[in-house]
Amino acid sequence: MSIKPRLSRGLRDLLPDTMLARQRLIDTVRNVYETYGFAPLDTPAIEYLDVLSGSAGEEAQQSIFRVSNPEEEELGLRFDLTVPLSRVVSQYPEVTLPFRRYQVSQVWRADKPHPGRFRQFTQFDLDAVGAPCGTADTEILAAICDSLSAIDVGPYQVRFSSREILNLLLQHASISADRAEEVFRVLDKLEKIGIEKVKLELTHGYRDESGDMIRGLGLGDDQVSAIERFLSIQGNDRGDVLQQLRSLFADIETSAEQLDVIERISSDLDTLGYGSDRVALDVSIARGLAYYTGPVFEAVLLDAPQFGSVFGGGRYDNLVARFGGPPIPATGASLGVDRLLAAMEHLGKVRPAKTPAEVLVTVMDSGLRQECLQLAFELRRAGIRTEIHVGSGRLGKQLKRADRLGIPYAVLMGSDEAERGVVTLKQMEVAHQAGGAITQHEDWKAARFGQREVSRADIVQTLASLLGRD
């Protein structure tokens, strides 16, 4: 019986053009992370359900994909990479603290799928476990900046605040601490839904565009007014924002100590050259996951703000303690690979490619197959990514393949070239721009669009030079 090819909702296949762009991005960010001394880690996609449950709040709990094994144990697919990291640190006493790791892996969330939102996606995390608040958080913020600069995403802004600042807000607004998670979850929606809907959700609720009822939290008018005053704090300089916060929370005894922590991070960033234009202190940053305990961060692309946060994270000092033992401080951030790539495609910053090959060695004469094969391997051994034509078809078909896949160079060697000890080097982009349906070798030689003869002995060095490998 024929099976219809199909995918479950919220999942997608990633074809070579998408995968190549992802790999370039990941390789670039990996280089930044390793420059900071972070080491790679991998963990299984499946965790025990009790490891995942209760770690990140109600919303994350509801998004867990439950799976089964032959032993009928209660298991789930990981919804992030931070919870498995906390398990690893607790499980392996040989792990040296601070443990500085990065991980790029798939995660799964059983959210309602819609355009641009998938149930399986890739995160690229860096974390420092066993590092107290201060320098480690500064490093995470700097690494976010350096990663986005290395990717060349255009103008961006990293925004940070602290859960401790939000806890001060609860005291200022006379909101009990046991309501923190639900209040912060609503504040985290500010940029997405706007202040008026935030106020409605904090009070009586409202109906969204689909007609669904969004339940309100039932806060009083005075409490919401206090929150609105807090959210109105803005400034182009981190020092100015801190001054406004000190004024707002002047009547709270512990506020100076908490704000001093943020001021030290801000001062460190100034010392390192990360000014307020790149790293802003934004009091509206809440982050949705419940396990954050201190500074929280996120990054947006200024030319594509509609894509929301492409980088996010924060401090989570209590997460490892769930597995027993003393609390271990930790901080980190996660790059949303899929979201960032979507934003970069929108901005025209993704270089299209359907193959990693830089050169196609054509086979024009079956009698020269071994010579062409030898040439292809010479290029590969010189570090030049090379494909050799392995099927049937005339030269025109082979060159059309190179053009279709975006291979920048083609090497042609017929019997005439072989006798004279030369090859013909074709720059495909020039030929493509010149146009014309040219299918015969003689026609290519006559037109010579982006084409020149190179000594067979010099072709490897010539291509290495053209590709910047010499």
Structure description:
The chain has 470 residues and is an alpha+beta fold. The protein has two domains: 16-346, Bira Bifunctional Protein, Domain 2 (BirA Bifunctional Protein, domain 2, 2-Layer Sandwich), CATH 3.30.930; 359-466, 3-Layer(aba) Sandwich (Rossmann fold), CATH 3.40.50. Helices cover 40% and strands 18% of the residues. The protein is built from 19 helices and 18 strands. The strands form four sheets. Strands 1-5-6-13-12-11-7-10 form an eight-stranded mixed beta sheet. α5 (135-151) packs across α12. The longest helix is centred in the N-terminal third of the chain and has 20 residues, at 16-35. The protein is elongated, with a radius of gyration of 28 Å. The model has no long low-confidence stretch (mean pLDDT 91).
Helix content: 40-55%
> The CATH topology of the largest domain, please?
BirA Bifunctional Protein, domain 2
| Integer average pLDDT | 91
CATH architecture of the largest domain: 2-Layer Sandwich
CATH superfamily of the largest domain: Bira Bifunctional Protein, Domain 2
Relative strand content = 15-25%
- What is the CATH class name of the largest domain? Alpha Beta
Q: Which sequence of strands runs across the widest sheet? A: 1-5-6-13-12-11-7-10
**SS elements, strand count:** 18
Summed up, the domain count is 2
By secondary-structure content and strand pairing, the structural class works out as alpha+beta
Uncertain runs are none
Cα end-to-end separation: 56 Å
Radius of gyration based on Cα positions: 28 Å
Q: Please outline the major beta sheet.
A: 8 strands, mixed
User: How many separate helices?
Assistant: 19
**Shape, per Cα inertia axes:** elongated
